[in-house]
Specification:
Distance between the termini: 28 Å
Shape: globular
Strand content: 25-35%
Radius of gyration: 19 Å
CATH superfamily: L-amino peptidase D-ALA esterase/amidase
Structural class: alpha+beta
Largest sheet: 6 strands, mixed
CATH class: Alpha Beta
CATH topology: L-amino peptidase D-ALA esterase/amidase
Order of helices and strands: EEEHEEHEHEEEEHEHHEHEEH
Strand order of the largest sheet: 4-3-12-11-10-9
Number of helices: 8
Number of strands: 14
Length: about 350
């Protein structure tokens, strides 16, 4: 199960938004969703890894889930996007890693799918592997392409529910967010009888842009140290057990930019910002023989749809901040150092602004 090694922002008195969170305030609050991490750390120069998100415990190729993807800014190298846009389904787990390891992650997901589905490429079609990426080349020897297919297989095997490690772990090992150590963050929201969960890979933003609870925290922090962080990228994965179809999931995913804006993202020219969204409710069976298939779909005439929009915004905002609070200082290639967010200083600044007890 695991426990968080450092206090999360909520444990320190910070409240994000209006909606209640799930039990663990994690993407794994959505029943069936699994997350696996593998760190790839070697010597002084290799600081990278892999994170896997499985929509359910079964065979995702045989039981596809409805999905959508929204590209906030397309300066990225994500794989599998066009088929999700065309067919509205996800047929592999989602892999997250560094930019130059996307082909390896594709290969790992394909190998995993082939092992579990001997029909692929023989009596049925091929498979659409889905990979998101961010560039961890500041801390990691990205040219060395140290992520191997075995790491993908290990992360797939490691995927489980419950506690999700955050910060500099898995794909987040070498990532930098707002000039501080970033990486993996997660959060969730309850929407009526349903749950929406979020997982982010944060590698974006300049220090002076960091905003926490509406306060320009980064501007104050940047006065004491120079900002050398690149604009970077972010990957967002949203999951829900609500019966949202691909069109509705796209509507939810489009709100991703609003959640990122809350923490100070300006969606820069060189950012690859992708929001993947899937629902675990309806399964599309690959070998379905019926001409007509009945799926549940949320009735949009009630207020729940707006609730999912707000849940996406709030959970993305909190997941990004969670990634910063969880990450530790990392020393990477060429002796480069990325410090952890100075949490106590952040809390002091928030107290000064609001007068609240954080």
């Amino acid at each position: 199960m695991g426990t968080y090694p450092k206090p999360r922002p909520r444990e320190l008195g910070l409240e994000f938004g209006l909606m209640p969170t799930g039990e663990r305030n994690s993407i794994t609050d959505v029943p069936g969703v699994l997350v696996g991490h593998v760190d790839v750390v070697q010597g002084e120069d290799v600081r990278t890894g892999v994170t896997i998100i499985k929509p359910h415990e079964g065979n995702v190729f045989r039981e596809k889930v409805e999905a959508a993807v929204y590209v906030v800014n397309g300066f990225g190298k994500a794989a599998g996007v066009t088929q999700i846009e065309e067919l509205g389904v996800l047929e592999t787990p989602i892999a997250l890693t560094n930019t130059l390891s996307v082909p390896v992650a594709i290969d790992g997901l394909i190998e995993y799918s082939l092992q579990h589905n001997p029909e692929i490429g023989t009596t049925t079609g091929t498979v659409n592997a889905v990979v998101g990426e961010c560039n961890d080349g500041h801390l990691n020897d990205i040219r060395g392409r140290h992520v191997k297919p075995s790491h993908i297989a290990e992360a797939l095997a490691d995927a489980c529910g419950g506690y999700v490690p955050e910060g500099d772990v898995g794909a987040g090992k070498g990532m930098v967010c707002f000039g501080y150590k970033g990486g993996i963050g997660t959060s969730s929201r309850l929407v009526g009888d349903y749950t929406l969960g979020c997982l982010v890979l944060t590698n974006f933003g300049r220090k002076e842009h960091l905003t926490i609870l509406g306060r320009p925290i980064g501007r104050q922090l940047a006065m004491k140290s120079s900002s050398t962080s690149p604009d970077g990228s972010v990957i967002v994965v949203l999951a829900t057990n609500a019966p949202l179809d691909a069109r509705q999931l796209l509507r939810v995913a489009r709100r991703g930019g609003l959640g990122l804006a809350r923490v100070g993202s300006v969606v820069s020219h060189t950012s690859g910002d992708y929001v993947f969204a899937f629902s675990t409710t309806n399964r599309t069976h690959h070998f379905e023989e019926r001409t007509e298939v009945v799926h549940l779909r949320l009735n949009e005439s009630n207020s729940l749809m707006t609730g999912f929009f707000l849940a996406a915004v709030e959970s993305i905002e909190e997941a990004v901040i969670n990634s910063l609070f969880a990450a530790d200082k990392v020393i990477g290639q060429r002796g480069r150092v990325v410090a952890a967010l100075p949490v106590q200083k952040v809390l002091e600044l928030l107290r000064d602004w609001s007068g609240s007890k954080c």
